[in-house]
Amino acid sequence: MSFFDQEYREIITKAVCGKGKKFTEASHTISPTHRPTSILGCWVINHIYHAKKKGDHVEVSGSYDVNVWYSYNDNTKTEVVTERVNYCDHVPLSIKDENCINDELEVVAKVVQQPNCLECKITAQGQKITVEVEREFIVDVIGETKLCVKVNPKGCKQDEDWDFDLSDDDFSEIDPDFLDNKHD
Fold first, then answer.
1. Considering only CA atoms, which of 136, 124, 135, 133 is closest in space to residue 68?
2. Distances (CA, A) of 151 to 32, 101, 154
3. Is the dihedral of CA 70, 73, 78, 82 positive or negative?
4. What mean pLDDT value characterizes the chain?
5. Are the C-beta atoms of residues 113 and 136 closer than 8 Å to each other?
6. Residue 100: which H helix or E strand, with range?
7. What is the phi-psi region of residue 23: left when phi exceeds 0, alpha when psi lies from -120 to 50, beta otherwise?
8. 106-122 and 77-96: which strand pairing?
9. What is the mean pLDDT of residues 52-56?
10. What are the strands of the beta sheet with 129-150, ordered from one edge?
């Protein structure tokens, strides 16, 4: 009896073979041109990132711009300072399937929480600004794996076994006044 005479088949397919999630809070120190008097606003823009598998974790590398609008000269003048921030987050894989056939893995990283300013304040010395930023990622590692499926020796049912025709009974419960025909 050969393999193909049996009731099972092995199928090679792509599947998620690793998953992970990581929340990060980071602190950035920004050096403005002038000694700040007060913080008027802070926002994070221009976020870009890419991910790759490194050992038993996924490395998400990226950058974003932190913009701080502040006043100086005793609140008589304002300025926006922008600083580019680079980061590298190591996302541990909490779910790992060791049954991947080869090492050609695809990594998909999705942002759960875009980098966002939590707090922005002037440091105790008064010369610099500290910005607290949060961000969160989920990652999927996709690879080839082998599935074992049971085969029905009688084959599949044919499409003509299904009745897709509509009858008058199918329309009997439709309310013809469902849509209000008022023209105001």
1. 133
2. 69, 23, 9
3. negative
4. 88
5. yes
6. none
7. beta
8. unpaired
9. 90
10. 36-54, 57-72, 77-96, 8-30, 129-150, 106-122
For the cut 50, the answer to whether the pLDDT of residue 1 exceeds it is no
Q: Please name every residue paired with 72 in a beta bridge, in sequence order, or none if there are none.
A: 36, 77
Q: Tell whether the torsion through CA atoms of 58, 86, 136 and 122 is positive or negative.
A: positive
Q: 12: which 2 tokens?
A: 């090679």
- 171: helix, strand or coil: helix
Q: Give residue 74's identity as a one-letter amino acid code.
A: D
Q: Where are the domains of the chain?
A: 3-152
Cα-Cα-Cα-Cα dihedral sign, residues 30, 34, 40, 46: negative
The conformation of residue 120, written as its DSSP 8-state character, comes to: E
Distances (CA, A) of 75 to 36, 39, 129: 9, 10, 16
Beta-carbon contacts of 24 under 8 Å, excluding residues fewer than 6 positions away, are 87, 89, 134, 135, 136
Q: What is the CA radius of gyration of the chain?
A: 29
Residue given tokens 């939590």 in the structure block = 118
Predicted confidence band at 158 (pLDDT cuts at 50, 70, 90)? low
Q: Which two tokens stand for residue 146?
A: 């082998």
